[in-house]
Structure formats: structure tokens, C-alpha cells
Amino acid sequence: MPPDVQALVKKAESEIAAGTLHPFTGPMKTNDGKEVLAAGKTMTDAELSKMDYYVEGVVGKLPASK
After folding, report:
1. Global pTM value
2. pLDDT at 65 over 90
């Protein structure tokens, strides 16, 4: 990985650990276009643990549960 990309990853990692960067901040949509998180809102850990969809930009579908 190029050094500039490594630096971006390290910066993001430290910001996530410090609580200043929230990777799951809206707006966020499912990969079929349904809005699941409004602009400016941040997903809670409880909401993240219940995620049963792919986000916009991810191609595919989740396997069916048994």
C-alpha cells in the first residue's frame, strides 16, 4: 500500500479510536436504495449489530438465513 494511503488509514484508525470519526454516519442507504440512516445521524452499536443488509455500492445480496 502506498505511503500516502497508509497515512490516511492510520489517521482514520486513530480518529475512530478517539471517537472523533464515526464510519457509520449518514446519509446511508442499502444497496437497493432504501435510506437507513439520515444525514448527520450516527449508527449505535445496537443498530450495527442488527445490520442485515449491504450498503450502497456493495453488489450482491446477503445469503438467506435458515
Report:
1. 0.69
2. no
